[in-house]
Amino acid sequence: MFVTFVKNLILLKQIFLFLIFSLCFLPSALGQTQKINYESDRTLRNEERYPGAFILSKVDNQVYFDHNGIEVWCDNAIFYKEANFFKAYGNIRMQQGDSVSMTSNYAEYNGDTEFAFASGNVKMRRPETTLETDSLFFNRITQQAYYRSGGKVTDTASVLTSRVGRYFLNEDKYSFITDVVVKNPDYTIHSEQIDFYSENGNAYLYGPSTIESETSTVYCERGFYDTREDHGYFVKNSRIDYDNRILKGDSLYFNRKRSFASATNNIRVIDTINKSKITGHYAEVYRDKDSVFITKRAVAAMLQDKDSVFIHSDTLMVTGKPEQRVIRGFYDVRILKNDMSGRSDSIYTNQSSGITKLINLRRMGDKDPVLWSGENQMTGDTIQLISNPKTEKLDTLLVFNNAFLIQKDTIKGYNQIKGKYLVGLFDDNELSQVDIDKNTETLYYMRNEKDTLIGINKTLSSSIKILFEDRKITDIYYYNQVDGKLTPEPDFPPNARQLKGFNWRGDERIMSKKGLFEGQPEPKLTKIQGIPLPDEPEEFFDQREKNKPLLNKNSRLDPKILQNRKEDTLKFKHPNLPDIKEDLKNEKKKDSLETKEEVKIE
């Protein structure tokens, strides 16, 4: 047993000595840099001009270098074998695997750092893109290429140019900075900073950016655009300008092929020709059809004879060319004008003819159209307002079927006039005359010149004419009177002081912009999916010791060139962690305010 123990002890000693030996000699072997292999038809030396270098030249075959997965062909080269560095000239071609190839007039390569530089008609090709520039740096360790003297990338759908560019081979991503332009046959993009993925053609826009075409201009300060499928998503001060419309919102979606755009939260659709604006929290715009659909607190605001007219409903639709705009509103329509307001189930407005129709499409009694002018309430199955398209002033009021006019008396009771049809005339946008026809009934509180009540007049006739002044009834004329009687107020039965069909809806009257939304729940705003800022990558040029430059001391480049410059870094990037926390606080505060805020109409 003791012998076995001794044998094991000797074996352990041998293993220990072997490990010590390995640790002494392996580091140099592991740290040894792989040398550049080369082939050349002609090899010369000129120690006076190129100390320690071989001069390699093409005769029948190009000079060839091979190093760690990269191959280089050229016509001539200066090869510093001990330094593991070469400079190549003439018809240069570099190949890395099957996916990356590059051509240039001049190139340098350091085998120790695996860092390359190319200049003169540089072209780097990938399966989906070709990069062209005057000079290019290529770091094989990080698999990144970089230019800062202007470059052009040709994609399957577009051509992208910028002053500064960085290509991440592993992600197949280009990061363009400063004066970035994307040119496509159908549009042009201008931006301060773009991240472009060549595999799918997706572009992320940062900073003030525009997408211009013959039919539209998109603006945003952060956005995404699929350059091949021609659609995008935009946030932060985003807007779309058409020939006669401007669409704004917290977020916008745009599809050029379908001539379609949609907007979410705090939307404004501005009609630049007809001086109107629609607001809400969700909208769809079809450019070719000249149509707009908007919902979630939808409000249309129009300028009419220097007065603003507001139309609110659950859903608004605007269709037609600028000179023939038609507005349709559905469900719980509310109208507000300086001297008039109204409600209905639905509304139709034709701006070219000046006709506005208040309709009850669903035939719900509580949604019968109602219109207020001063203390006058008018109801009926359908109400039409006709204005002069040129002067934009109200001209005629028409009420079809079950016309009912109610005016609240100054002291008590209600003046009431009903019939089958009602025609009203306006003078300078104020109701001046009303004619009611067919089976008319009147219940009117008669007063003398001192405004003292002298009795209640109840009359039946075939038609009635009523004159107004300052929105108050001044005269009533009865035609083909059938029956009429003035009764002292104390003798008039209280239960007979309302005509059949009487329905005073004064509590529904809209007195201000706030009243457009009275009784309605706050809209639940859609959570906007943001586009995060990119993380700033590590600096392209490694911070290295002076005696270990990225390129050999025999490089023709000034070492100062191989330094990072502040002006070439990302302008729009992800903030530091403390800033993120502060931004999240601000976003929550902003969301809270937006939820409580009323729709603003200028």
TrEMBL record:
It holds the Pfam family OstA_2. This is OstA-like protein. Gene3D superfamilies: Lipopolysaccharide (LPS) transport protein A like domain (2.60.450.10). One of its GO terms (cellular component) is transporter complex. It comes from the Bacteria. Keywords: Cell outer membrane, Membrane. The keyword RNA-binding does not apply.
